[in-house]
Amino acid sequence: MKPSIRRALQGAPWILLLNFEDAQRAQRHGYMTAAQWNAYRWAWTWAAPRFGGDAALAQDAFHARHGDEALQRRRARVRALLSLLTHS
């Protein structure tokens, strides 16, 4: 993960508690910086299985290149990081 993503999420752990629509609204209304929005989208894309939209396309492409085990490991690493950031 890029250090900029980690910094953006560490600076505002409340972002990780938002659902996608609320995060979009917060970004549109200026409550979230561009860096925080990008970090949120990265976390949202990789933290759980996605079945539609850009997140699903990213996961499908990763799965095609690296296989199911690699995708599961990536999701687990992202969830571990998010847990660390929200509980520290």
Layout: helices, strands, pairs:
Blueprint: H1 3-11, H2 20-28, H3 34-47, H4 53-66, H5 68-86
Helix pairs in contact: 1-3, 2-3, 4-5
Structural commentary:
The protein has helices at 3-11, 20-28, 34-47, 53-66, 68-86. With 88 residues, it is mainly alpha-helical. α2 (20-28) packs antiparallel against α3 and α4 packs across α5 (68-86). The two termini are 18 Å apart.
- Any idea how many domains? 1
Structural class: mainly alpha
- Rg for CA atoms: 13 Å
Order of helices and strands: HHHHH
Total DSSP E strands = 0
State mean pLDDT (0 to 100 scale).
Answer: 89
Provide key terms for this protein.
88 residues; mainly alpha; 5 helices
Please outline what is shown here:
The protein has helices spanning 3-11, 20-28, 34-47, 53-66, 68-86. The protein has 88 residues and is mainly alpha-helical. The two termini are 18 Å apart.
